[in-house]
Automatic annotation (TrEMBL):
InterPro entries: Flavoprotein-like_sf, FMN_Rdtase-like_dom, FMN_Rdtase_MsuE-like, NAD(P)H-dep_FMN_reductase
Protein name: FMN reductase
GO MF assignments: oxidoreductase activity
Organism: Neomesorhizobium albiziae
Keyword line: Flavoprotein, FMN, Oxidoreductase
Keyword Transmembrane helix on entry: no
Matching PANTHER family: FMN REDUCTASE (NADPH)
Phylogenetic placement of the source organism: Bacteria, Pseudomonadati, Pseudomonadota, Alphaproteobacteria, Hyphomicrobiales
UniProt cross-references to Pfam families, sorted A to Z: FMN_red (PF03358)
Residues of the NADPH-dependent FMN reductase-like domain: 5-147
Amino acid sequence: MPNAKLVGLVGNFSRPSKSYALVETVAGLAAKRYGFRTQLHDLTDIGPSLGNARHHKDLDEVARQVLQNIVSADVLVVGSPTYKGSYTGLFKHFFDLVDPLALQGKPVILTATGGGDRHALIVEHQLRPLFGFFMAHTLPSAVYAADRDFVDYRLVSEPIRGRAEQAVAELGAFFPQRSLHAEAAE
């Protein structure tokens, strides 16, 4: 699939953010391995029209473009900071505006960040069911990182980076030719 597009969506408004840094790391690893074009968005990119939108038509042009980027992506990397054991409310609200069939069959790498290990199950108990509803293919390996895994909003943990590489390698089931090419080039 030439010129395949990977889109990342981060469920927070803070910049810089650890969640953005994690999605950016995963997207960068995938782009390097498979040659994907990448676009990353966070809730700030979606803008203020999200909060009042009841339907995707209620979004302003910028937010509609972000939604279109996600729907048209060949691969998604999604991530959210963990609040009270779940993803952010506006992240969920954004996906409430996505057509239920729009993500069907799309490979999705799940990521999340939190203060400590207590929040690690967000990917299994919150994110995986959300994308299961959309009949997307969530990859088996999800990536969770705690505050201690970052320095100055950069991922510094080698075990977490290894987990991200494992998740990216699982995309080879969807892009086998690209995966073989990448391995031959190394």
